[in-house]
Amino acid sequence: MSARIAIVVPRCHERLVGGAEALGWQYAQLLSADYAVDVLTSTAFDYMRWDNDLTVGTERREGITIRRFNVARGRTPYFHSLHRNMLDAFARSSEKPAGARYCWPEALEEEFIRAQGPNCPELADYLAAHGEDYAAVFFLPYLYPLTLDGIRAMPHRRWALIPAVHDEPPAYLKTFARMARSAPRVLWNAEAERRLGARIWKLDAGNVVAMTVATELVTAAKEEKPYLLYCGRIDVSKGCAQLLEGFEAFKLANPKSDLQLILTGNDVLGIGERRDVRYLGFVEEQRKFELMAGAVAFVQPSPYESLSIVLLEAMAQGTPVIVNGQCEVLVDHVNASGSGLVYRGQREFVEAIASMSALAAKKRLKQGEMARDYVLRNYSREQITARLKAEVEALASS
């Protein structure tokens, strides 16, 4: 009988295609060939509210068991008040060392974590009662009470944390630093993320496992005009307001350019009607890859990424990229591949668009080849599976 593995993640649904949800599901898929895999998750679909959108209970998908637990406490306006207090405190303490960014007592840190949701005490109870049944349990990401409570409920040390941490205000809470340092094993998405963990959590441990991405080349989309592409959640926290403002500034500076900006994904921001901006909504994976393959460049404006799946998918299609220099992980991808452009601020973003638009076909092809080669060298299915299985075996034998 195969050893049992559990992956604990706040949300799990086939329509959730990015972030920690995608990472957790991919790990479940990669491990399911050799282990019996359970995904332990909440009944929430929308991370803004953490309501009980889905049904409590068990389902099977692709040979993987998904166990959903009730959300006892979601997110209310009270959380947003606490979050504003956090942002104010974070701004005031910008010159302080990482461990002293807040003067919050432990009880207030816990209240903030609980207020953001999802709180699933029945999931923690399940782990306390059945944790011994699993040879290894993986928790991701670091941010939520579901992770914190699940870790505290574990009856053994055969567990690992997959932080998926960004350089963001909540990461500086001392509660999270203690949780991370208590982990028997830590799985990072990138070297830059591991450096961040050392800087803000004083955690000098763990291995980079990362994530595999689709690499099969597709036929490029045939659109009427050349375009930049963004795929993912269209939100302020993802840098999309700056993306739209920067593109508008480019069009004002280059009125004869026929370049368009195409966006796909969930529009949380509210794009509205904008000149030469096309919002396509959710698109099928094949259509997404075709759009990536046909783009002048893929733009990743997010300041907070622990890997950026969509960026690597675009690079795998041989597409040049433009990335926000505020995010160390994205800068590492550009530097390590030797392709793409990094911008810091609107002026440099406008210049990057202009440079990519003016790039000769031969040079754009070379940029794309270097980007694709980087993904193939570092993110193949075989590489990620081997790294992940090594982590399972290390935990199971501990």
Short synopsis of the structure:
By secondary structure, this protein is an alpha/beta fold. Helix content is 42%, strand content 15%.
Provide a descriptive summary of the structure in words:
- By secondary structure, this protein is of the alpha/beta class.
- It has 2 domains: 4-75 and 87-212 and 381-396, Rossmann fold (3-Layer(aba) Sandwich), CATH 3.40.50; 227-378, 3-Layer(aba) Sandwich (Rossmann fold), CATH 3.40.50.
- The chain has 14 helices and 14 strands.
- The strands form 2 sheets. An 8-stranded mixed β-sheet has the order 3-4-2-1-5-6-7-8, with helices on both faces. Strands 11-10-9-12-13-14 form a 6-stranded parallel β-sheet, sandwiched between helices.
- Strand 13, helix 11 and strand 14 (341-343) form a beta-alpha-beta unit.
- Helix 8 (240-253) crosses helix 12, helix 10 packs across helix 13 and helix 11 (328-337) packs across helix 13.
- The longest helix has 18 residues, at 361-378.
- It is globular, with a radius of gyration of 21 Å.
- The model has no long low-confidence stretch (mean pLDDT 94).
Counting DSSP H or I runs of 4 or more residues, the number of helices is 14
Point out poorly predicted stretches. none
- Alpha-carbon Rg, integer: 21 Å
String of helices and strands: EHEEEHHHEHEHEHEEHEEHEHEHEHHH
Distance between the termini: 20 Å
Spatial arrangement of strands, main beta sheet:
3-4-2-1-5-6-7-8
What is the secondary structure topology, with strand pairs?
Layout: E1 4-8, H1 19-31, E2 36-42, E3 57-61, E4 64-69, H2 77-92, H3 106-116, H4 121-130, E5 136-139, H5 145-153, E6 159-161, H6 174-181, E7 185-188, H7 191-201, E8 207-208, E9 227-231, H8 240-253, E10 260-264, E11 277-279, H9 285-294, E12 297-300, H10 309-316, E13 321-324, H11 328-337, E14 341-343, H12 346-358, H13 361-378, H14 381-396
